[in-house]
Specification:
The structure holds 2 protein chains of 2 kinds.
Chain A (H helix, E strand, L loop, with lengths): L9 H19 L6 H20 L4 E3 L4 E3 L1 H28 L4 H17 L6 H19 L9 H31 L4 H4 L6 H18 L7 H8 L2 H7 L2 H17 L4 H23 L5 H22 L1 H31 L12 H4 L1 H15 L5 H15 L3 H26 L13 H19 L2 H11 L4
Antiparallel strand pairs in A: 1-2
Helix pairs in contact in A: 1-2, 1-4, 2-3, 2-4, 3-4, 3-10, 3-11, 3-14, 3-19, 3-20, 4-5, 5-6, 5-11, 6-8, 6-9, 8-11, 8-12, 9-13, 10-14, 11-14, 12-13, 12-18, 13-14, 13-17, 13-18, 14-16, 14-17, 14-19, 14-20, 16-18, 16-19, 17-18, 17-19
Chain B lengths: L1 H20 L3 H26 L3 H31 L13
Classes of the chains: A mainly alpha, B mainly alpha.
C-alpha cells in the first residue's frame, strides 16, 4: 500500500495531523502566546474546508473498507463548518477561562472532528466503531472541561454524558458482535444475509438503540438537557450539532447500506421513535426557563424531524435529511453563540436574560430572531425549506400521519421559540447599553446568519448538492 | 454456538441489570464493562465457530475502545469526587429535573 492509496482519507488525515500539530505547538509556545492556538485551529479548519473542494477525495481504500464519494465529502464539509463556527465562537472564552489548557481543548476538538469526518465513508464495522468512538471520547473530556469554574455542574454533566455514551457503546458492540459472529465478516455488504433471521433483527434493534442514545432520540434523551446545561457553551455549540450530523451519517450508512433486507424490523421501531421524540421534545421544551435546557429539548424535537427524512427513505428522504442537517448547523450554532454572548455579558443563561435585547443590541436580536424562525420553520428562512422537504419526503413514502403530526408539533414549537423572541423584543430590561461581542464570535454569528438567510433565499444549490451526495450511499 | 450465545446473553443481561440498579458511578461503569465483555465473548466465540479471524480481531478493537472509555470515565469520576465528595449517581442532581 502506498501513500497515494490513502488519498480519499485526506480530510481525516489533515485533521489528525492538525490535532498533533496543535499539541506540539502548545508545548513550545509561551503561555502568553497561547491564544494563537485557537486561530491556528480555525485557520486549519478553514483550509480543510477549502481543500475539500480542491483535493480528489473519490475512491476506495483497502478494497472498499472506506469509500470516499460525494456523500462522505458533503457530510465532512458540514461537520468541518460546524467545528469552525464553534472554534471561532469560543476563541475568546477559551483563552480567558482556560489560559493554560487551550492546546488540549483544540486538540480534543480536532480529534473528535477526525472521527466524525471519517465516519460517513466507513463500509466495515470495525472501522466504523473506531471512528464512532474517536468522535465520542474527546467529547466526554470536553464536556468536563470547566472543572473548577462553575461548581458542581460540569463534572455531573460530563458523567451523565459518559455513562450514557458508554452504555450505548456497549449496546452497539453487542449488536455488532451478533452480526459479525453470524456473518463471519465485518463488511457492510456481507453483514446481513438476503433472508435474515430473528437474531439479525435483535442485533439491528440493539444497534438502533445504541445510535439513538448518541443522537438524543427520546426516550434515550435523558442526558441531553443536563449535559447542555452543565457544559461550557462553546462546547455545547459543537456538541449540539456535529455529533448529531455524524450520528445520522452513521445511522444512514449502517441501516440503508448494511440492513436494507431488515427494514421490516427497524422501520416500525424507527416510526415509534419519531413519534415519541416529537411529542416529548416539543412538549417538555414549553415549560423550560433555562435557555440551554430549552435548546436541548428543541434539539430533541429537531432530531425527530430529521429522522422523519430518514424514515422517508429512498434517495429523496436521505437527501432532505442532509439538507435539514446543514440548515440546522447554522441555526443551532448561531443560537448557542448568541446565548454565549449574552451569558458572557454577565446576564446568565435564562430566557429572562435576553430581556430588552432588541433595544440593547438590535443586530444581535435580529440574528436571534432569524435563528429562531429557522428552527421553528417559518418561511422564508432556511429551516422552512428543511421542514418542507422533509415533510414532502415523508408524504411520498406514504407517512401522511407523520406529516400531520409534524405540522401539529411545529405549531407547538412556534410557541416556545416565539417565547424566546418575545423576551428579546417585547420585554424590558433594567440594564442599558449594548451586549459586548468579541470579534471572532461576531464573525461566527454573522456566518451563521448569512447561512440561515442565504439558504432561505436560495435553497436550490444545496438541495441539488444533497441529492447528488446521496448517490454515493447506494 | 447456542451455548456461547446463551452465556453471552446472560452476561449481557447481568450487565444491563447492574446498569439499571447500581447507584455508584464506578459500579455503573463495571456493569457497562460486563456488557462489553459479553460482546467480546460473542466476537471470539462465534469467530471461532465460523473459523474467521475477523471476530477475534474485532474483539481487540473493542477492548482498546473500552479501555479508553474507562480511563476518561475514571478521570471524570475523580473530578466529581473532588467537587462533591461522593460519587453516587443518584445524588448527582444539582441540575433541574
Amino acid at each position: 500500500m502506498s501513500l497515494a492509496d490513502l488519498q480519499p482519507l485526506m480530510l481525516g488525515l489533515i485533521l489528525a495531523c492538525a490535532a498533533l500539530l496543535v499539541l506540539l505547538v502548545d508545548l513550545v509556545i509561551k503561555p502568553s502566546g497561547k491564544p494563537i492556538l485557537g486561530w491556528l485551529t480555525a485557520a486549519i479548519l478553514a483550509g480543510t474546508l477549502v481543500a475539500s473542494w480542491l483535493l480528489p477525495l473519490e475512491g476506495e481504500v483497502q478494497a472498499g473498507v472506506w469509500q470516499g464519494n460525494l456523500w462522505s465529502t458533503f457530510l465532512a464539509r458540514v461537520m468541518i463548518s460546524a467545528g469552525l463556527l464553534a472554534v471561532l465562537g469560543g476563541l475568546d472564552y477559551v483563552a480567558r477561562v482556560w489560559p493554560y489548557r487551550q492546546g488540549e481543548f483544540y486538540t480534543l476538538l480536532l480529534f473528535s472532528l477526525t472521527g466524525m469526518v471519517l465516519l460517513p465513508g466507513c463500509r466495515e464495522l470495525a472501522a466504523f466503531v473506531v471512528c464512532f468512538e474517536l468522535m465520542g471520547i474527546p467529547i466526554y473530556v470536553l464536556a468536563a472541561y470547566s472543572k473548577n469554574d462553575n461548581g458542581k455542574k460540569p463534572p455531573e454533566a460530563a458523567l451523565k454524558l459518559l455513562l450514557i455514551g458508554a452504555a450505548s457503546t456497549a449496546l452497539t458492540f453487542f449488536g455488532a458482535a451478533l452480526l459479525v459472529g453470524m456473518a463471519g465478516s465485518s463488511r457492510f455488504a456481507e453483514l446481513v444475509p438476503y433472508e435474515p433471521g430473528p437474531l439479525h433483527a435483535v442485533a439491528a434493534l440493539l444497534l438502533l438503540a445504541g445510535m439513538a442514545f448518541k443522537i438524543g432520540v427520546a426516550p434515550f434523551h435523558m442526558w441531553v438537557p443536563d449535559t447542555y446545561e452543565g457544559s461550557p457553551t462553546p462546547v455545547v455549540a459543537f456538541l449540539s450539532v456535529a455529533p448529531k450530523v455524524a450520528g445520522f451519517a452513521a445511522l444512514s450508512s449502517i441501516f440503508l447500506i448494511a440492513m436494507p433486507t431488515l427494514a421490516h424490523a427497524w422501520r416500525p421501531m424507527l416510526w415509534l421513535l419519531v413519534v415519541v421524540t416529537m411529542v416529548v421534545g416539543n412538549l417538555v421544551a414549553i415549560p423550560q426557563t433555562n435557555l440551554k435546557r430549552l435548546m436541548a429539548f428543541s434539539g430533541v424535537a429537531q432530531v425527530g424531524y430529521i429522522l422523519l427524512g430518514f424514515l422517508g427513505g429512498a434517495e429523496f428522504g436521505a437527501a432532505m435529511m442532509l439538507f435539514y442537517l446543514a440548515t440546522y448547523v447554522f441555526a443551532n450554532i448561531g443560537m448557542f453563540l448568541i446565548v454565549h454572548a449574552v451569558a458572557e455579558a454577565g446576564e446568565g443563561e435564562d430566557i429572562v436574560s435576553l430581556n430588552g435585547l432588541a433595544r440593547r443590541s438590535p443586530w444581535l436580536a435580529l440574528a436571534l430572531l432569524m435563528f429562531l424562525l429557522s428552527l421553528a420553520g417559518i418561511p422564508f428562512v432556511a429551516g422552512f425549506w428543511a421542514k418542507f422537504y422533509v415533510f414532502t419526503a415523508a408524504w411520498r413514502a406514504g407517512h401522511g400521519e407523520m406529516v400531520l403530526l409534524g405540522a401539529l408539533f411545529a405549531t407547538v414549537a412556534l410557541f416556545y421559540y416565539l417565547g424566546v423572541a418575545r423576551a428579546a423584543f417585547v420585554n424590558k430590561s433594567a440594564i442599558e447599553g449594548p451586549v459586548p461581542v468579541k470579534r471572532p464570535l461576531a464573525l461566527a454569528i454573522v456566518v451563521c446568519l448569512l447561512g440561515t438567510v442565504g439558504l432561505g433565499a436560495w435553497p436550490n444549490p444545496l438541495v441539488e448538492a444533497a441529492l447528488a451526495a446521496v448517490q454515493g450511499l447506494y | 454456538m447456542t451455548a456461547i450465545l446463551l452465556i453471552a446473553s446472560a452476561l449481557f443481561c447481568a450487565g444491563v441489570f447492574g446498569l439499571l440498579t447500581q447507584k455508584h458511578a464506578i459500579g455503573v461503569m463495571i456493569a457497562i464493562e460486563v456488557m462489553i465483555n459479553a460482546a467480546n465473548l460473542i466476537f471470539v466465540g462465534l469467530g471461532q465457530h465460523k473459523g474467521a479471524a475477523v471476530g477475534q480481531s474485532f474483539a481487540l478493537f473493542t477492548i482498546a475502545i473500552a479501555v479508553a472509555e474507562v480511563v476518561v470515565g475514571l478521570a471524570i469520576v475523580l473530578l466529581l469526587y473532588r467537587s462533591r465528595g461522593d460519587v453516587q449517581v443518584d445524588e448527582a442532581r444539582e441540575m433541574r429535573q
